[in-house]
From TrEMBL:
PANTHER family: FAD BINDING DOMAIN PROTEIN (AFU_ORTHOLOGUE AFUA_6G12070)-RELATED, GULONOLACTONE OXIDASE. Residues 106-291 form the FAD-binding PCMH-type domain. GO terms for molecular function: FAD binding; oxidoreductase activity. InterPro entries: BBE (IPR012951), FAD-bd_PCMH (IPR016166), FAD-bd_PCMH-like_sf (IPR036318), FAD-bd_PCMH_sub2 (IPR016169), FAD-linked_Oxidoreductases_BP (IPR050432), Oxid_FAD_bind_N (IPR006094). Belongs to the oxygen-dependent FAD-linked oxidoreductase family. It holds the Pfam family FAD_binding_4. Keywords: Oxidoreductase. This is FAD-binding domain-containing protein.
Length: 587
């Protein structure tokens, strides 16, 4: 698909190193483009048809994902340190005030980007960066919450157009001798494939892939290389658990096949060590599983008719029941999401395996359907609530495939797009939920979190690989993921014209909102957070994101990228002084 903003107006004679830029343009077959901010047409002429198109798609995730200069959290298009930007008002993109308030500036966008189509494009970019010291940035969908896919003045590598996808019923990693690895069904995807595309492809081939909760997150880029969790991860593993092979261009310009048999150190590092760090991945091959049918609970208790205190009580009660049940739910195979007013849980396991709990709920068919399951008390409570309030929704349903569930889920739960957003994250180990008083403390900390940020945005993600042990330590994700039953996030947003101090305040509130939870789940020394969804200013980030794996990851980084051609914020080997981080605020 062509990007919405696509202006090959490169005037190279005005650019430092212009001969090298010119040479680069020739090396990449002319696919070197100047970055033009997404909303530039609106700053040129607000009523132009081009601007109407931008306004219309400003909050649309697929449009942003497919546009090389638009990012899902729009602050990563801006220079937060200097306040230069080219934003519209996300609360009303038809408001022309931003275009009168300031000039359109390219903020933290790369100066130029390559529309990557071959390994030679990437090799040329590494050579160019080595000679000119122009930093590189790698961008796939632009979903990153921490700004790791843009950098001011950089040469951007836009991976979107690597769109190949293929299914191999019996895939053997290259270079493995016969008998070393058992061949398995697998899907090979180019770096630009999104999760909605991957799941649609899988469905056609009657197989299941494990992806996240969002349709336009990339399947191969930051999601996969940072760990990658989803509603099936409890029993089927994280994305990183399921990779069989990467094809990657390392900073020395070599195309390497990394799997269990070749470049095993690089393979391990790419399975959780983070995107944008060890090389530019062109393709990944991931395990394909047989089709799944999903037992599903969709329970929404928030009510427009209920008093605000009543809704708060319901949130507390639902979360308390969820906390009581979560370890048992994880053991039964459930995964999913809970917010202040909804719980969605899915289970790919046969429901007959649930019938091992103590509870023997009596009564209606809905409760009896999963009789004995740890989920029964939650359903029983939901049912009693519904008899009092017809606004309560309680659906128990079997989806015949992952795609049928995913399509419903992503149509109902659409993430924030086009906003300035700060996030924070905590992993919640099972031990933190092991006694009633610990659970009470955790629920209190979650309720507190929703009072600190300006709108209650806590999400409890039951997407950890609790029932998927990795005894051989084949991935580099923080081991704490496997001991945890929840990953919790919270968000804070700010307006297009917020001052630098207001922006700092938003980052601080996102952090502080999960502070109590952090204290109850290991603190700075022993706690964990998800590298892809963490506080931008996470303290002790090396340990929080990778635990004991950080030292080994740093060795791999030094081996494959000794000249530090790649770097990103709080990535393995991160160096704050680098000019590419000049747009981050000190908070
Ligand atoms: C709405 C939304 C929903 C989300 N849902 C989930 C979820 O359910 N589960 C989950 O685990 N995470 C989720 N995330 C977080 C997601 O994992 C991260 O945002 C991730 O960084 C996205 O990767 P990307 O490649 O799509 O994005 P990008 O922003 O393009 O890239 C992210 C990082 O990966 C690097 N990178 C990208 N492509 C390559 C490549 N080919 N080679 C090397 N490095 C590369 C970039 O340089 C950058 O550092 C969600 C995020 C959003 C905004």
């Amino acid at each position: 698909m062509e990007p919405l903003v696509f202006t090959p107006s490169l005037n190279l004679s005005l650019v430092p190193h212009w001969q090298l830029w010119s040479q680069l343009r020739d090396q990449v077959g002319g696919r070197l483009y100047e970055s033009v901010p997404f909303a530039q047409p609106c700053y040129d002429e607000f009523n132009s048809s081009a601007c109407v198109g931008v306004r219309h798609s400003y909050l649309d995730e697929v449009s942003r994902t497919n546009t090389p200069t638009a990012f899902v959290q729009s602050q990563w298009e801006t220079c937060q340190a200097t306040q230069e930007h080219c934003l519209l008002d996300w609360s009303n993109p038809d408001n022309d005030a931003p275009t009168h308030a300031a000039e359109c500036k390219s903020g933290s966008l790369p100066s130029y980007y390559i529309n990557v189509q071959t390994a030679d494009d990437v090799k040329a970019a590494f050579d160019f960066s080595r000679k000119t010291k122009v930093p590189l940035s790698i961008r796939n969908t632009g979903h990153d919450y921490k700004g790791r896919s843009s950098a001011p003045g950089s040469l951007g590598l836009w991976m979107h157009n690597l769109q190949e996808i293929s299914y191999t019923p019996s895939f053997a990693p290259r270079g493995c001798s016969a008998g070393r690895v058992t061949p398995s069904p697998a899907v090979t995807m180019g770096a630009g494939v999104r999760w909605d595309e991957a799941h649609t492809f899988a469905d056609k081939h009657n197989i299941t892939l494990v992806g996240g909760s969002d349709k336009s997150v990339g399947a191969v880029g930051g999601w996969l290389q940072g760990g990658g969790h989803g509603a099936l991860s409890n029993t089927m593993g994280m994305g990183a658990d399921r990779v069989l092979e990467f094809e990657v261009v390392t900073p020395d310009g070599e195309v390497r096949v990394a799997n269990e048999c070749q470049h095993a150190d690089l393979f391990w590092a790419l399975r959780g060590g983070g995107g944008g760090t060890f090389g530019v991945v062109l393709y990944a091959t991931v395990l394909a599983s047989p089709p799944v049918t999903l037992q599903t609970l969709i329970f929404s208790w928030g009510s427009a008719h209920a008093h605000v205190d009543e809704n708060l009580n319901r949130t507390r009660e639902a979360w308390a029941l969820f906390a009581d049940a979560s370890v048992a739910l994880a053991e039964e195979g459930w995964g999913g999401y809970a917010t202040k007013d909804v719980i969605v849980l899915v289970n790919p396991e046969d429901p007959s395996t649930f019938e091992k709990g103590d509870s023997e709920p009596e009564g209606d068919e809905e409760v009896m359907m999963w009789k004995g399951s740890a989920i029964a008390p939650l359903i029983k409570w939901g049912h009693s609530l519904r008899t009092k309030d017809r606004g309560v929704v309680l659906i128990q349903k079997v989806f015949p495939t992952w795609l049928s569930f995913f399509n419903v889920f992503t149509s109902k739960f659409v993430a924030s797009v086009g906003k300035n957003l700060a996030l924070s994250s905590r992993l919640v180990p099972a031990t933190s939920l092991s006694t009633p008083s610990l659970r009470e403390g955790i629920v209190g900390a979650l309720m507190h979190a929703n009072t600190v940020t300006t709108s209650p945005g806590v999400i409890i993600l039951m997407t950890t690989p609790y029932s998927f042990p990795d005894e051989e330590k084949r991935t580099s994700v923080n081991r704490m993921w496997r001991e945890s039953v929840w990953h919790v996030t919270n968000v804070e947003a700010w307006a297009w014209n917020a001052t630098a101090e207001e922006v700092r305040g938003s980052y601080r509130r996102a952090k502080e909102s999960l502070g109590k939870l952090k204290d109850l789940t290991g603190g700075t020394d022993g706690g964990g957070a998800y590298v892809n969804e963490a506080d931008v200013y996470e303290e002790g980030w090396e340990r929080a994101f990778w635990g004991d794996n950080y030292g080994r990851l740093l060795e791999v980084k030094r081996k494959y990228d000794p000249d530090h051609l790649l770097d990103c914020w709080h990535c393995v080997g991160f160096e704050r002084e680098d000019e590419r981080f000049g747009c981050y605020l000190d908070v």
